[in-house]
Structures are given as structure tokens and as C-alpha cells.
Amino acid sequence: MPAAKFEISRECKFCGDLFLAKTITSIYCSPRCSKSAYAKKRKVENIKKLKIEKALKISNEEEYISVADAVALYDVSRDTIYRLIRSEKITKYNLGKRLTKVYRKDLEELFNLKPITETITAKEEVKTFRLEKEDCYSIGEITIKYGISETSVYTHIRKYGIPTRQLGKSVYAPKTEIDTIYK
Ligand SMILES: [Zn+2]
């Protein structure tokens, strides 16, 4: 008896091509698109993580902050900040040609911006990868579990920016990340 078929034409979330989805949850047309989407997501997450790390260093005491700090702290673009300065919607303070500071209360009160460090997700984003041995696979274990050569594993680790840790003679990578790229 043929297996029950689930086939529905869908647009791949990465490349936009139409494909026949085999399961309800398929959103990408190919493993290639799924991996590219994952790499893109990781890149965005890394940028956000850097912003949060930067934002965490900005003192709450500062009434005026640099544009770069405002970008990190409120997760808005430089263009947005400069547009607000140009249209005189926010108070700026010029410390010479190259250093403009903005009044952070304006951003918070007029535009209802909240520091990313105060959002719930911010706390989750800064969590570092657990690199304890029990949370990791050794490279050898990955090659066995997923039937992939060591060279490919290293290539993917670099490509997707997966953190690794050397313990004794073996290199370890977090299980969650490895499972995500190979499942
Ligand atoms: Zn695709």
C-alpha cells in the first residue's frame, strides 16, 4: 500500500521557489536553502548579540549617549537616529564634528523605545553556548552520528559560526547547534 501522501505546493521561505512540501512543517525547498536560512539567522543573531553586549556596557547614568550607543541600546538604525536629529525631533548635543550625542529620554519618551537590555529576549540572547562536555559532541561523535567526514564537519562549523572547545585531544561542539544543522 502506498504511504499516505502529503504534498502541498509552497513557496520556499529562503529562495522563493515553489516546491512540493512533503510535511506540514517544511518551509524550505531543499537542504541547501534550509542551511542557508540557518546561516543567515545565526548572522542576524550574532549582530543582535553584539548590540546587546554593547548596550549592557552603557551606563544608566548617561543622559546623553552617542549615536552608535543609541543604535545598540534601542535596536534602531543609524538612519533613523539621524533622521530624528535632522528633523529636530530629538535633542542633540554636539561634541565636535565627529561626536554627536542624543538625549536618551527623548528616544524613550517620544518614541517609546525601550533599551534592548530590558526586553525579555535580551536576556535569552546573551546566554552563552553551554560548552560543558555533556552538552557537546566530539567531532568524532558527529562523524559517526551523522555519517559525515571530519573535513565536512569542520567546514560546517566554520560556515555556521558554531563555537567549539578543545578538551584534551578532542574538539567539542554544542549538541544543540550540531543537531540543528544536520537534522
Ligand atoms: Zn529554496
What this model shows, in words?
The protein has 183 residues and is an alpha+beta fold. Among the domains are: 58-125; 129-183, Orthogonal Bundle (Arc Repressor Mutant, subunit A), CATH 1.10.10. It is built from eight helices and eight strands; from the N terminus they run ββαβααββααβααββα. The strands form three sheets. A three-stranded antiparallel sheet has the order 3-5-4. A hairpin with a 5-residue loop joins strand 4 and strand 5. Helix 1 packs across helix 2. The longest helix is centred in the N-terminal third of the chain and has 26 residues, at 31-56. It is flat, with a radius of gyration of 23 Å. Bound molecules: zinc ion (ZN). Zinc ion (ZN) is lined by residues 12, 14-15, 17, 28-30, 33.
Give a brief rundown of this model.
The protein has eight helices and eight strands. It has helices at 31-56, 67-74, 78-86, 104-110, 120-125, 139-146, 150-159, 175-182, and strands spanning 8-11, 18-21, 64-66, 92-94, 100-103, 136-138, 165-167, 170-174.
